[in-house]
């Protein structure tokens, strides 16, 4: 199934006005478990520092928006392959009065290097879309300052792309996910030595994801009219799904369909 057209459809609905865009970001923060894990990692960083941050593969800009609020004095560069996505984010940040210290640029992560420039590189659900991942890891390492941190969220090889009967629910992925060993070895080859990796999306998180993300997207893929019924659907399942997300975040998982990786230069 093509996941991007559904995201684009929802982005257009919620992105027309700043207030709707902020609601959209809030919904993504609540529903997507990966956002819970990223928020947890970002909260480990002192919020009174002036960081130089790279949002590597920023998409709709929701993590750029979050980091702007968490680290208001920081300089954030958000890059993505899609120029129309970057222009859309520029317009929103300008309308919302959040443009100071934030810039958006079209760039290819396999080619983008800004040597010794960033305290933090954030890459959320990007690496599974890139064939030349080792090249990107090397570029991240070169672009970080000494002691700079890289935070990655990506699917694991335990069904992270929802592989069933040879087909991916999210068909834009070029790989079905990383093992902890595989991603650690590739980061070591790039130069990183201090690497921590943990599973996300264990059994609680996967149940929540199916109910709150997968099934609604399948329905929207069949008919956009399902959008009318989404609010009522979420009223029925939201408390249950948020509870599952909380359990997943607070658990020590031996298995999971996602990975959260932190590496220090």
Explain briefly what this protein structure is:
The chain is an alpha/beta fold and 265 residues long. Helices cover 45% and strands 20% of the residues.
Structural class: alpha/beta
Number of domains: 1
Strand content: 15-25%
Give the strand order, joined by hyphens, for the main sheet: 3-2-1-4-5-9-8
Q: Uncertain runs with pLDDT below 50, 5 residues or more?
A: 163-169
Explain the overall architecture.
- Residues 163-169 have low confidence and may be disordered.
- This protein has a seven-stranded mixed sheet, sandwiched between helices. A two-stranded antiparallel sheet has the order 6-7.
- It has 265 residues and is an alpha/beta fold.
- The protein contains nine helices and nine strands.
- The protein has a single domain, classed as 3-Layer(aba) Sandwich (Rossmann fold).
- The protein starts with a helix and ends with a strand.
Secondary-structure blueprint of this entry?
Blueprint: H1 4-14, H2 18-31, H3 33-42, E1 52-56, H4 62-70, E2 75-80, H5 83-95, E3 102-106, E4 118-124, H6 133-143, E5 144-155, E6 163-164, E7 167-168, H7 180-190, E8 194-200, H8 203-222, H9 230-250, E9 258-264
Parallel strand pairs: 1-2, 1-4, 2-3, 4-5
Antiparallel strand pairs: 5-9, 6-7, 8-9
Helix pairs in contact: 2-3, 6-7, 8-9
């Amino acid at each position: 199934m093509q996941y991007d057209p559904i995201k684009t459809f929802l982005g257009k609905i919620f992105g027309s006005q700043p207030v709707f865009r902020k609601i959209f970001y809030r919904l993504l923060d609540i529903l997507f478990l990966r956002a819970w894990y990223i928020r947890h990692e970002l909260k480990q960083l002192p919020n009174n520092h002036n960081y130089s941050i790279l949002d590597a593969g920023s998409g709709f800009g929701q993590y750029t928006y979050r980091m702007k609020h968490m680290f208001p004095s920081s300089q954030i560069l958000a890059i993505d392959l899609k120029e129309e996505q970057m222009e859309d984010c520029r317009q929103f940040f300008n309308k919302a009065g959040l443009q100071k210290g934030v810039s958006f640029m079209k760039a290819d992560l396999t080619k983008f290097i800004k040597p010794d420039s960033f305290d933090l590189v954030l890459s959320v659900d990007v690496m599974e879309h890139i064939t030349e991942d080792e090249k990107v890891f090397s570029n991240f390492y070169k672009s970080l300052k000494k002691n700079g941190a890289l935070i990655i969220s990506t699917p694991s090889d335990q069904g992270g792309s929802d592989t069933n009967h040879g087909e991916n629910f999210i068909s834009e992925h070029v790989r079905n996910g990383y093992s902890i060993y595989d991603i650690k070895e590739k980061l070591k080859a790039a130069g990183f030595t201090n690497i921590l990796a943990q599973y996300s999306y264990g059994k609680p998180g996967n149940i929540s994801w199916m109910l709150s993300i997968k099934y609604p997207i399948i329905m929207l893929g069949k008919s956009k009219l399902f959008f009318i019924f989404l609010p009522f659907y979420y009223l029925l399942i939201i408390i249950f799904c948020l509870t599952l997300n909380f359990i997943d975040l607070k658990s020590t998982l031996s298995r999971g369909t996602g990975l959260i990786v932190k590496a220090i230069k």
